[in-house]
Amino acid sequence: MKGGALELGQSPTDSAAKSGVNRGLAILDFILRVVAITGTLASAIAMGTTNQTLPFFSQFIRFRAKYTDLPSFTFFVVANSVACAYLVLSLALSIFHIVRSRAQGTRIFLILLDTVILGLLTAGASAAASIVYLAHKGNVKTNWFSICQQFNSFCERISGSLIGSFAAVIVLVMLIMLSAVAISRH
What pTM was estimated for this model as a whole? Predict the structure, then answer.
């Protein structure tokens, strides 16, 4: 004799409730991906369009600060652009999870790719953060002077772009944990 759902201690609505929770997790996943797209896109645009020119002694001699002057900032822009492109492409799988909340293989695939992108985004943001710190504070031991007193607008924009990128890092960590919870519910 086979035991029915009631004999096994399950109510008939357990699977429906599980499906509803999984669908809610998938919708939250989609929303968090849109937030991460916004953060990475805004960071890449803010850093990529940052430049400031200051006159020095006369109008013919000028100092110019651009994000391409420092390889760490270039890496930051590339890392945020790659992360943004990945997040846009991953929206398709996120929508698939809303429609089919029981899909497990694609969630594991997303966890793997989210972790790779998290590493890339963290590396880019950390590299840029070290240069931003030097721009603000300088380093007296190596005779690197703070440039933010002269290039104020440049420093404000590069500092602001870090905020969006680190916010996207936090959102990616939340996405990985959310996917892990969704997988563990199966």
Answer: 0.81
